[in-house]
Design brief:
18 helices, 4-stranded antiparallel sheet, alpha+beta
């Protein structure tokens, strides 16, 4: 069978003018109808001939053989991909202006329509036309809150403080001092169709005379690479059908099963991650540099006129490849703003558009860096997987570049841009050359097939972190791809479990315990003169002086769960929820009741709460 994902390579062929205009205006339904007409066309019947001219054929006329009876193959492939892109776009750009303003007002104190229009005018939000109407990208609000400190300060539910940057500085100092650092990591990950998608697939199968749905599922696995060693595959929910080689460009485990009931496929694995310190400007590059990984890879690593001009401007007068790479890194980290993105499937010419719009996420910044490096003659390649930390794990992408005699080094442009926003030049500089120990590398290539290949369109045909599924040959709606959750990970309730810690492992703070991921906690903000001054979780002993002084959580017991809505500023309400959701919740209600009488003491609710997703640099959102 033909792998539809191979069509992606023809994406840059483009669209016929009429369909391109319809797509630009967001008239996707009509554009798709025109694509269907073109794909169904038999060119032997529409070619120039007496019949198509409306006249009778001369006696004895034999039509010449048409060399393209079904059209140009590359255009057919491009149309097939564009049709799928336009089918997906309305789901990626879903908010009207009124809905978007209301969404921000639900999250930000005193947010106004005038603020929204100003942010829109400044290009701080991504939007498209959908059936002629302006629609904003699904996660525009998350982008604004993650990248605008003034908006984040007005959040109705403030973020809990964290010390991630302090930890990064300690790691940087250790790596600079000792040359490297290592961490032993264990992750659990799983994937499952949504129950609605499975029910629809089973109904379709029964209509076709079958009692089961043929399901294939893929999940990312740690790959052999310079930074990763001691890889062990510890546990699977069931015996897999295939495990890709350790050096596969996108390493996966694959299951294949005929199902009468929906179920979860999962894996647990361990590995050692070693981060080596590298300063690309600390050595003299060889006069001769290699030429591998310096070519184009359509459709996204393409040397367009604009990118060639940009690369020439950035590297003018510079001969050292390390200094050229540094200039490119500076361009990306200082100029490209972080924006949560729609799925990569709907993107076209990623590096070109990033360089023009100056917007992107970790993968888009990485591809822009890679493309500009290659134009400048610097070998550069893709690497991706997870960013991990105690309590956090999620998808992340970065780049590698090569300068002889040192060899391969790293560039994490997303982390670098984050440090630039914070004014942290030490860490921005760290991520040019070096990474950290919080990684799981699964992919060493952009746009590589699985082993065995997925034949239908993948959710993400370029990269793989959350996994993919196929039901009877087509990609279904995936429920919650789970990553590093504790508890019963073979089922999918809204929450994995509530939990609390009895004793701190380090003798000081239970939040430093090794197994904090998956622990759902609720708490209360402490306010003074209307300003948030601290956070306390239910179950915490608020009379412990260490807590007041240093926010340490030395006592954290179930019997301490309590609220006291007396206006004192301590536990007046539950307004600080840290939830590790396994799937989306249309309505999430938090109540405090008397266990014996069921009397209701307190209630609050949130609507349309998305599942927990980790974004590198921002934590769980």
């Amino acid at each position: 069978m033909y792998d539809l994902n191979e069509c992606i390579r023809s994406l840059n062929v483009g669209l016929p003018d009429d369909i391109a205009r319809l797509k630009a205006a967001g008239y996707y339904k009509e554009a798709i109808a025109r694509i269907d007409r073109l794909l169904a066309e038999d060119w032997t019947k529409t070619q120039n001939s007496p019949a198509t001219n409306g006249s009778a054929a001369p006696e004895g006329y034999v039509p010449p053989e048409n060399p393209t009876p079904h059209g140009v193959d590359a255009l057919r492939e491009a149309l097939t991909v564009q049709k799928e892109i336009m089918r997906r776009l309305p789901g990626e750009y879903c908010w009207t202006e009124a809905e978007a303003i209301a969404r921000m007002q639900e999250r930000v104190r005193d947010f106004t329509a005038e603020e929204f229009k100003k942010l829109d005018w400044e290009g701080r939000m991504d939007w498209r036309f959908v059936e002629g109407e302006k629609r904003y990208q699904a996660r525009f609000a998350e982008t604004l809150l993650a990248t605008h400190a003034d908006l984040a300060a007005r959040k109705l539910t403030p973020d809990a403080p964290n010390n991630k940057n302090e930890e990064r500085h300690r790691l940087h100092e250790k790596m600079e001092r000792e040359g490297s650092a290592s961490a032993d990591i264990t992750l659990r990950t799983s994937i499952r169709m949504s129950d609605e998608a499975f029910a629809a697939a089973l109904e379709k199968a029964r209509a076709e005379g079958r009692d089961t749905v043929h399901v294939r599922a893929w999940l990312a696995l740690p790959a052999a690479c310079p930074s990763q060693s001691h890889i062990t595959l510890d546990r699977f929910t069931e015996t897999p059908g295939h495990i890709a080689a350790e050096d596969a460009p996108q390493r996966t485990v694959c299951w294949e099963a005929d199902l009468t009931e929906n179920r979860t496929f999962g894996a647990e694995y361990s590995y050692r991650e070693t981060a080596v310190y590298a300063d690309p400007l600390s050595f003299t590059p060889d006069p001769e540099q290699p030429g591998f990984y310096t070519g184009e890879e359509a459709p996204h690593i393409v040397f367009t006129p604009y990118l060639r001009a940009l690369a020439a401007q950035l590297t003018e007068g510079i001969t050292s490849p390390a200094e050229k790479a540094k200039r490119i890194y500076d361009y990306v980290t200082l100029n490209v703003r972080y924006h949560f993105q729609p799925s990569y499937f709907v993107h076209e010419s990623i590096a070109e558009n990033c360089a023009r719009s100056r917007r992107g996420d970790c993968g888009i910044m990485a591809l822009t860096f890679i493309t500009l490096c290659r134009i400048a003659g610097i070998p550069a390649r893709w690497e991706s997987g997870f960013a991990v930390a105690p309590g956090d794990a999620g998808c992340h992408d970065w780049a590698r570049f090569y300068v002889a005699p040192r060899g391969w080094m790293y560039a994490d442009c997303s982390y670098g841009a984050s440090m630039a926003r914070r004014g942290d030049e030490v860490l921005r500089r760290h991520y040019f050359g070096s990474l950290d120990t919080g990684r799981m590398v699964a992919n060493s290539a952009f746009e590589a097939p699985f082993a065995p290949p997925m034949l239908g369109f993948r959710s993400d045909p370029y990269d793989n972190q959350s996994g993919e599924m196929e039901a009877d040959g087509s990609a279904p709606q995936i429920g919650m791809p789970l990553l590093a959750f504790l508890g019963d990970w073979t089922s999918a309730p809204i929450l994995d479990r509530a939990n609390w810690f009895d004793e701190p492992q380090d003798g000081e703070n239970v939040m430093n315990n090794d197994c904090t991921l998956g622990v759902n906690v609720v708490g209360s903000t402490i306010r003074s003169a209307g300003e948030v001054v601290n956070f306390l979780n239910l179950g915490q002993n608020i009379f412990d002086t260490d807590i007041a002084a240093e926010s340490k959580q030395t006592v954290f017991h179930q019997e301490n769960f309590a609220i006291s809505p007396d206006g004192s500023g301590y536990f007046d309400a539950i307004d600080d929820l840290e939830l590790y959701q396994l799937r989306d919740a249309k309505l999430f209600v938090t109540e405090v009741r008397n266990k014996n009488t069921n009397e209701l003491y307190f209630r609050t609710f949130n609507t349309y709460v998305p599942r927990s997703v980790y974004q590198a640099g921002y934590g769980v959102v």
